[in-house]
Amino acid sequence: MIKRKHVIYLTQAAMIASMYAVLTIAQNLLIPGSASTAVQFRVAEALTVLAVYTPAAIPGLTLGCVIANISSVTAGLGFYDMIFGATASLFAAVAMYLLRNARVKNIPVPALLMPALFNGLIIGFEIDFFFIGSLHFNTVDFLLQSGLVAVGELAVLLVLGTPLCVLLNKKGVQMGVVIKD
Length: 181
Prior knowledge:
It is a single chain. Helix content is about 70%, strand content about 0%. It is an all-alpha fold. It has one domain: Arp2/3 complex 21 kDa subunit ARPC3. Helix 3 packs antiparallel against helix 4 and helix 5 (about 110-130) packs antiparallel against helix 6.
């Protein structure tokens, strides 16, 4: 039984990673820049809500972000985007999983704020320090870039993530489980 749960965990993580990567890369191909600029509406970020339902989403979202951001290397965003994006995804997914039981009308509102918080801070710093500030930190630029990133994240989670949570709740998906026996 333990081996079966391990295989299911890895399978879930791989599926989440592939969905995230494919959605992001496809979005960037169809609407260039819409998933890789400071003000973005990265559709794949709706999948972050899966961290509320399974711990397998933590490595899945992190790996998916790394794979998706490989395409940003060729778009001029560099190696930094892979590192900072994956770090933001990892921290957000862990925080979402830890906050999975904090609910407002059965919606994990505190958890849904975590991608905006972590992406805003981490990606905002990345944009300010590496792309705008030429390796210099500027508080005003950082706050502006952080805000722009956070607004995009909040929009995705409000428009796509919240309805996904409602759907998963209606379907009876249990929180924090890898498999239902």
